[in-house]
Structures are given as C-alpha cells and as structure tokens.
Specification:
The chain is α/β, with parallel strands linked by helices. The protein folds into 4 domains: about 70-245, P-loop containing nucleotide triphosphate hydrolases (Rossmann fold, 3-Layer(aba) Sandwich), CATH 3.40.50; about 250-300; about 325-535, Rossmann fold, CATH 3.40.50.300; about 560-635, Orthogonal Bundle (Helix Hairpins), CATH 1.10.287. It is built from 20 helices and 18 strands. The protein has helices at about 40-50, 85-90, 90-110, 115-135, 140-150, 165-180, 195-210, 220-225, 245-280, 285-300, 365-375, 410-415, 420-430, 445-460, 475-490, 500-505, 525-550, 560-590, 595, 600-635, and strands spanning about 5-15, 15-25, 30-35, 55-60, 70, 185-190, 215, 230-235, 240-245, 325-335, 340-350, 355-360, 380-385, 390-395, 465-470, 495, 510-515, 520-525. A 6-stranded mixed β-sheet has the order 5-6-7-3-8-9, sandwiched between helices. A 6-stranded mixed β-sheet has the order 14-15-16-12-17-18, with helices on both faces.
C-alpha cells in the first residue's frame, strides 16, 4: 500500500493551473526524484503531501500511521542546545524508551518484597533492554556524530550552541535531525544546496543505501542519478512517473514521446480520412454511415500532440578573437590572509582551447584564484598574468556585474547600445524573458532570472577566455541543459568553478582539484576522477583486509554442475526474451491497426501493454546478462 496517494488531484492559484487530474503515489522503499522547471509546482506537491495545502479537487490519502519528515528551509531548532544535543532531540520515541529503561533499572535496585515481584521486574527490564537495543538505542549517539561529520560538522562544531551557527549550518543540522529521525517517508527539498562536494557525496551514499522511502526535489542531475530509483516529472500540468534514475528517465521519456508521436500521427491520418468520407457521403447514399462516423469522431478521445519540455534559454557564446596561445600563466603563486594559507607554490599554464574545471571544498580558495586571474586580488607571492589579446568574460555567482536599479532591458542594452530595442527584446526572449518581464528591475528578479540575464550579457561581450563561477546555481534543469550545450559549442578557452558534477562531465576535459595542502591537475572529467578515487579506496581497503583478516582462502574451483543449472536458466531466459520480442512486434502491429486505433479504450489498453512489455524485456535482458557473467565465473564459457 502506498504511503501517499493522490487521486485525481487538481490545484491552481487563481487562473494559473498548477496541475490537473493527477493520480500518483509513493510506495515503501521508493526513492523518488521530483523534477520540473522552476515554478512548475514541485513545492506545491510537497505541501500537499504534508497537508500544509489542500487540493482544489480530488483526494490526498496517507497510510495510517505513516510518519512524514520534511526538511524545511527554516528548521525548528533550539538555540540554547549544542549541535549534538539538537541533532538527537527529535528522537522522542527513543528518549521515551531510554527513560523507561532507566526507571526499570532503578526499580531493580530497590529490594523486592517477594521473589515473584523481583522476577517480574527483571523480565520487564529484559524486554525493555531488548527493545532498546533493537531500536538502536546503544548506537544512536554514535550515528548522530557520524551523520553530522558526514554533513561537514567538525568534532569541535558538535559542542557549539545552535544560536551561533550560520544559516547554512542550521539547514545542515536540520537535515541531520531528519536523517536521524523516526520518519517512514522523507521529503527533501534540494538538501544538497548547502553542502560542499564532499558532504554531497556522503549524502548520496547515505540516501542510496536508505531503507525507507523519500521524495527528493533537486536540480542536481548527478545527485539524482546516484540516489533515486524512480523519477517523477512535473510538466504540462501533470505528473509522469518513470522507473530508474535520472539518466534512465531521459531514455524512457524519449521512447514515450516517440510512441505518442506515432499514435498521434496515425490518429490524425484516421481522422482526416474519416472527415473526408463524411464530406463525400453526408448527403449521399451512405448518409447513415457518414453520420455514424461523425458521431464516432465526436466521442473519440483525441491524443494530444507530443509537447516538448518548456523551452530553455537559447544560449550561444561566440569568441571575440583568437588571442595568445598562452592564455593564462601562473608561476609559483601563493595566497595567504593573515595566518590562513589558502595555497602556495602553485604553477599552472592554460593554453588556448583548453577546458578546465575547478573543484574543492568551500573556503579552499577557488573563487580567490579566479579573482587573482581577473586582477581583482594580487597573489601573496608569485605571479598571475593573462596572455596578449585575451578578452575575459566572467560570470560570478553573486552576479555583482548587474546594475540592480536598471530594468532587464536596459541592463542588457548597456552592453551594446548600438542595438535597436527589438533586437534586445529578441535576445531577452531567448533567455526566457517575455512581455512585461523585460521591464522588471534587476533587484526584483529571482536568482534564476538574474543568472540568465548575466549569461545573456556575457554572450554579447564575446570573450575568448570564459570564466564561470558556479554558473548553474539557481538554474533549473532545462536551463542547465541549455547552458551545457552552449558551453560545449563555445570555441574559446574555458575555466569553470562548479559543484555541478553533471555539468562538469559534459563541459571540461581537465580538473584543478583543491586539496588541503596542494592543488592537483587531473586530466579527465569528474566521473573519471571519481572512478579513480573509488578504485584507490577499494585497493586500500583490500590491503587493510589482507593485513587484518584470516589467511586468504583459495580461489574457488570451477563448478560445472552449478554452471549447467545456470545455463538451463539462461536458455529459458533466451526463450522468454524471444517470446517477449514477438509479443512486442504484435503490439506494434496492433497500434497501427485502424480498428484498434479508432477505439480509445483499445488504444489505451494496447499502449499500456506495449510500455509494460518494453520494461519487462529490458528486465529479462538484464537477468540474462547477469546470469551469463556468473556462468563464466563458474568455469563455463
């Protein structure tokens, strides 16, 4: 039974429709990623689940006793508690059980009037102790410390009063409380937004192994890929559910749109032919047939034309000119503030056309390095200089280059005053500014709107060295995808600081990695680096296991009998795959059959059967591949 179910739910604000007639739910064990453009209504879904909002029509039902934990942007924290005290404060059931166990222990210390009473007290204490142990009572304090450390709190931070924490630290503490809590279903609204890359990776591992259910709202596609087993997309006022992670959803969505396009085209052909028959025969001998077909058309459920996702910003960067081959030269540079050393003896050469990403913990000096390259700060020692004829375009995460008292129209116009107003409006339109939006003051724009405006200005400046500092912050997934495509096509040299690993994978060929004592240059994208790190950790663990475990067991000998059994199952799977492929072929024929196509109920039934069969076929292939690998390991090719 689902934890949460939406039945024919509709919600709108005034004349604005958020979604209409939505049916959807979350089952136990589901790790659901909720995606959609900014303003599509993702937060509204969360508030419906928590009962903070009620639907305009339809029903939201909850499993009896289901406990829902919601990570809000302003968590309820006691400023007088220490961090560790606040983290465990919400474990009300655990604390109640712990107090009951202490009371039982105190009762045992009092001499009993009879052996029967003593045995009763002892049995009660044993039951409570067993319950406390099974609930994790002896380990919850250690779990709290592990989660807080994973989310970036140091040992010293654990004993700070909550009142002195920054806003970001309070959000992380609220997340820690939620992960420690006693919820059946977690609602996570961009939990990674206040985490550095190391803490984000820790949270990914935690959530991927999480035994409960959660609903995750995020624009971080890499994070979604590593934590979810279902994706729900809010688009065109409806929810569409896909099995698998974010990357899998892209494949399934493309298949769904292709199928819908074929169904739409076939229905349109059938409608056109039917309307032609009606026109030719409505006044002739076949009047009754024509009238019958007209009635059929009136009753027919029309298949919607497949709609693409909301258009994303149309970004196109061009290069001002070739410039020098040596775009950037850093020689033995160091940067220090008082006694705090960010980095030292750093040398780096950036050549024309190279594309380098910069990663590292918050506060490690990434943005400072960019400011030194721009000449806004000087190195403590060493030198930093750009080559001749290098024109730098800089996007900073604070968007400080925008004039807050100007309209969006005038702010973009200021880059090239020779453009006419219609040209400026057209460019803004490509960045999703339309109608009266162009007259909004920059100060009144959302973070995402300011980001798109800053990128539009950067595009017009035509730099040959593009420096981006967290360019995907505040951008939704469609706009991030558009930015990636633009940066991929950019012909100049690229230097980008980003926590968005999906973005880095698609835009850079090298990394500068800020580590505690030095900066490492890595050839490859983020996934290459992550795979290398995982392998290093795995190798180190194997070495440790060899030193600490019992003598190494001999390698298993081939097992021909077990291999034969596996081979029989593999053969059965091959037969099942062949039958399923034949079934799919028949369903495709049915979809093109006019008799089926003209019946809305039949086309819906066949379409559902086709989609289900596709998923079942893929599962059969996965099982077959896994089994054949086992057969090889057992000594039979």
């Amino acid at each position: 039974m689902p934890y949460i179910s939406l039945h024919q739910v509709s919600k709108h604000y005034g004349a604005q429709v958020v979604f209409r007639d939505v049916s959807w739910g979350i089952d136990p064990g589901h790790h659901v990623g909720l995606i959609g453009a900014n303003g599509a209504g993702k937060t509204t879904i969360l508030k419906l689940v928590t009962s903070e909002l009620t639907p305009d029509s339809g029903d939201v039902s909850r499993m009896k006793g289901c406990r829902v934990g919601y990570l809000t942007q302003d968590p309820d924290l006691d400023a007088s508690c220490t961090v560790i005290e606040e983290a465990i404060r919400g474990l009300t059931e655990m604390h109640a059980l712990e107090q009951e166990l202490k009371s039982a222990e105190q009762a045992l210390e009092i001499p009993s009037d009879s052996d029967e009473e003593a045995e009763r007290l002892l049995a009660r204490y044993g039951r409570l102790q067993d319950s406390f142990e099974r609930a994790g009572g002896y380990t919850y304090h250690h779990r709290a410390e592990a989660i807080l450390h994973g989310l970036g709190f140091s040992e010293r931070d654990l004993y700070l009063p909550v009142g002195v924490l920054s806003g970001g630290q309070k959000t992380r503490l609220g997340l820690a409380k939620l992960l420690l809590g006693e919820s059946d279903l977690l609602l996570l609204d961009e939990p990674e937004s206040h985490l550095d890359m190391q803490a984000t990776e820790w949270l990914e591992r935690y959530l991927s192994d999480y035994s409960g259910a959660f609903l995750l709202v995020s624009h971080d596609r890499y994070f979604l890929d590593r934590t979810t087993n279902r994706i729900t997309e809010l688009e065109h006022h409806t929810l569409t559910d896909y099995p698998g992670n974010y990357s899998r959803h892209l494949v399934l969505k493309e298949e769904r749109l292709r199928l819908q396009a074929r169904q739409y085209e076939r229905q349109q052909t059938m409608i056109s032919n039917t309307e032609d028959f009606i026109r030719r025969n409505i006044a002739g001998q076949k009047t009754k047939q024509a009238q019958g077909r007209r009635n059929m058309l009136e009753r027919m459920d029309r298949i919607d034309r497949p709609r693409q996702a909301r258009r994303a910003a149309g970004l196109t960067f061009s290069e001002a000119g070739r410039g020098a081959d040596d775009v950037l030269l850093i020689d033995q540079a160091s940067k220090q503030y008082g006694e705090h050393l960010l980095f030292s003896d750093f040398s780096f050469k950036l050549m024309r056309g190279e594309r380098v990403g910069i990663i590292g913990p918050n506060g490690s000096g990434k943005t400072t390095l960019l400011r030194m390259i721009l000449g806004r700060e000087q190195p403590t020692t060493g030198s930093v200089r750009t080559g001749t004829s290098v024109k730098v375009g800089y996007y900073d995460q604070e968007r400080s280059g925008l004039g807050r008292d100007r309209s969006a129209l005038n702010e973009l116009w200021s880059v090239k005053p020779t453009m006419n107003e219609q040209t400026v409006r057209n460019i803004l339109g490509r960045f999703l500014f339309s109608g009266d939006d162009v007259q909004k003051l920059v100060a009144n724009l959302s973070g995402g709107e300011q980001g798109r405006l800053a990128l539009a200005k950067l595009m017009l400046e035509e730099p040959n060295l593009l420096i981006l500092d967290e360019p995907t912050n505040h951008l939704d997934i469609p706009s991030r995808h558009a930015l990636e495509e633009a940066v991929q096509e950019y012909p100049g040299t690229l230097l980008v600081v980003s926590h968005d690993r999906y973005f880095l994978d698609r835009t850079v060929d090298e990394l500068l990695i800020f580590e505690p004592d030095h900066i490492v240059r890595w050839v490859g994208n983020y996934s290459d680096y992550r795979s290398y790190q995982d392998q290093q950790e795995s190798d180190a663990q194997e070495v440790e296991n060899e030193h600490t475990s019992a003598p190494k067991k001999q390698q298993k000998k081939p097992n021909p009998i077990r291999a034969k059994i596996h081979q029989k199952v593999a053969n059965d799977l091959e037969d099942a795959i062949q039958k399923k492929e034949e079934s799919l072929a028949r369903l495709e024929e049915d979809l093109s059959n006019e008799e089926v196509f003209s019946d809305p109920a039949k086309i819906a039934e066949v379409g559902h059967a086709y989609s289900t069969a596709k998923v079942e076929l893929e599962t059969l292939y996965q099982e077959w591949e896994h089994l054949t690998q086992e057969i090889e390991q057992l000594g039979q090719s």
